[in-house]
């Protein structure tokens, strides 16, 4: 890698460049490959290297590329062509990786779905993208089969992910004993309809070479997100967007050894974070991607014995659980050189504990689906700043504006809405021109909806989501600030703060808290605790004790569901 040049380090329009780690350049090279071309390049460079590992069974890059070409041929026979949407409703497994690249090879569009979504959630998305072909986990095929006739895909392919496991493990799952039957029920099921095709039916001949490949600016993925407002909508991401983000990640970590890294896929591939860090970034540098259908410390411990990780992207709760296991001698994490945390604030205590047990770096990044998703990161070196989300990635610009008037930039250290511009920024929302215009400004700036402050040297600290700010008595209250105080209470294990309507039409601050085992607290006691640490208008007017907080699959507290929970409480 070329070191950062002296002129770039002193660029007054990009003061953060002086904080870049050694060897990181200010800009990435021109984007020249689509996603399938990047995979093909890895197959050429590292044909015999392991690309995928699943419960110990491995697939080489040569084998992976061959499978992609064969499945692309099978999908073409089903009528899939350029621009067609193909729905993937799959957990993290080898078939997911193959399906992703096979769809893209045809110039078609991948639409990722969370397989644990309800029928109602899936119906909304299928009505929106109108995919006529879906590749689904057999365990959830019934939910797809029950979609209304005018929404249900014309062709449904079911995946039994246990067939990607080692033969011995497949045989063990078929044993006629209660333990095996219980395990099998969690992993696979009979397809909901005989009309559904098995994954293996796609494994025919390779795709003919005459079939045209996609172009850089073709749509690659529709990734559903709530965005900054409203119902989930499909973020349009091109090959260039996703390839740029993988290249930016590669530039950010010049110490990575191409063809020799072991990535742990503990993040779901259907999530934008897991998609980029694992499906595109890992595959583009010839890494071994160890896949986990769900995050499970026991599964990680087993995998680490024969394939020690070197790169582990995740979220703070994952790092906490793994670090505690390492402290108890249950797992050796000393091989992990880099770990990138996202999706939620990273506590400094988690960083310290992780780096103590690994000897490697844990840095926080920032992103959103509309940015493919990563836009900022802490430098992987001594200039990193725990507590902030870092500085802009190479080829990325930022502004901080008055959230009520995007034409006004705010000063250094003043809170404002973060804007992002770069090659990773999406093309808009699928079939939603008005919401696109609200989020994507005419000159390419992406409105994030996040309220931040930026230091003189370019480090960004997130204050809160604009849409989640609570306005009470004319004052803005940051839920994160109140949550931080609640979590400092010795008897509170978890907390979430939301706004609830008052009888006069205004808002009030409300909290849901989880109490530590054996502890006893009262709502009045919690409020008294907060009064000594917060201004009166920030103290929750209502505190409800709950058994647990609703979280997403990657561990993020779902504030919208917390609010619904409190509204429904007597």
SS-derived structural category: alpha/beta
Strand residue percentage: 15-25%
Total of helices: 17
Largest sheet: 7 strands, mixed
Low-confidence stretches: 1-7
Radius of gyration: 24 Å
Query: Can you count the beta strands?
Result: 25
Residue-averaged pLDDT, rounded? 92
For the termini, the CA-CA separation is 61 Å
Gross morphology is globular
Order of the strands making up the biggest sheet: 7-6-5-3-4-8-9
Q: Kindly state the percentage of residues in helix.
A: 25-40%
EC number: 6.2.1.3
Enzyme class: ligase
Domain AMP-binding enzyme C-terminal: 481-556
Pfam families: AMP-binding, AMP-binding_C
Write the layout of secondary structure elements.
Elements: H1 6-9, H2 35-45, E1 50-54, E2 57-60, H3 61-77, E3 85-89, H4 94-105, E4 109-113, H5 119-129, E5 133-137, H6 141-145, E6 155-159, H7 167-173, H8 178-187, E7 197-198, E8 219-225, E9 233-238, H9 239-252, E10 262-265, H10 272-284, E11 288-291, H11 297-306, H12 316-327, E12 338-341, H13 348-358, E13 361-367, E14 374-377, E15 391-392, E16 397-402, E17 405-409, E18 416-421, H14 433-439, E19 446-454, E20 460-465, E21 470-472, E22 475-477, H15 479-487, E23 492-501, E24 507-515, H16 523-531, E25 542-545, H17 559-568
Parallel strand pairs: 1-11, 3-4, 3-5, 4-8, 5-6, 6-7, 10-11, 12-13, 24-25
Antiparallel strand pairs: 1-2, 8-9, 13-14, 14-15, 16-17, 16-18, 18-19, 19-20, 21-22, 23-24
GO molecular function: long-chain fatty acid-CoA ligase activity
EC number: 6.2.1.3
Domain AMP-dependent synthetase/ligase: 40-430
